[in-house]
């Protein structure tokens, strides 16, 4: 089952600019919003898996933050 969400052209361009070749738009949005917090799923995942997820998210936040700053500059 899927739903449609109406977004502005500018936001669509922002998401599309961050889309990787092997991703769907949904996957890009999930990546950009950071997905679930490891603490929220700690009861579901092993502590090792949660730690790996936490580390990966922290790594991506730093890289994505720089990409977002560069994209914001384009829209200013």
Automatic annotation (TrEMBL):
Source organism, top-level taxon: Archaea
Taxonomic lineage: Archaea, Methanobacteriati, Methanobacteriota, Stenosarchaea group, Halobacteria
Protein name according to UniProt: RHH/copG family antitoxin
Region (Disordered): 57-76
Organism: Natranaeroarchaeum sulfidigenes
Underlying gene: vapB35
């Amino acid at each position: 089952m899927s739903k449609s969400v109406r977004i502005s052209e500018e936001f669509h361009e922002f998401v599309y600019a961050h889309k990787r070749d092997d991703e769907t738009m949904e996957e890009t949005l999930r990546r950009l919003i950071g997905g679930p917090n490891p603490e929220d799923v700690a009861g579901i995942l092993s502590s090792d898996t949660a730690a790996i997820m936490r580390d990966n998210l922290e790594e991506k936040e730093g890289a994505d933050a720089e990409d977002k700053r560069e994209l914001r500059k384009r829209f200013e």
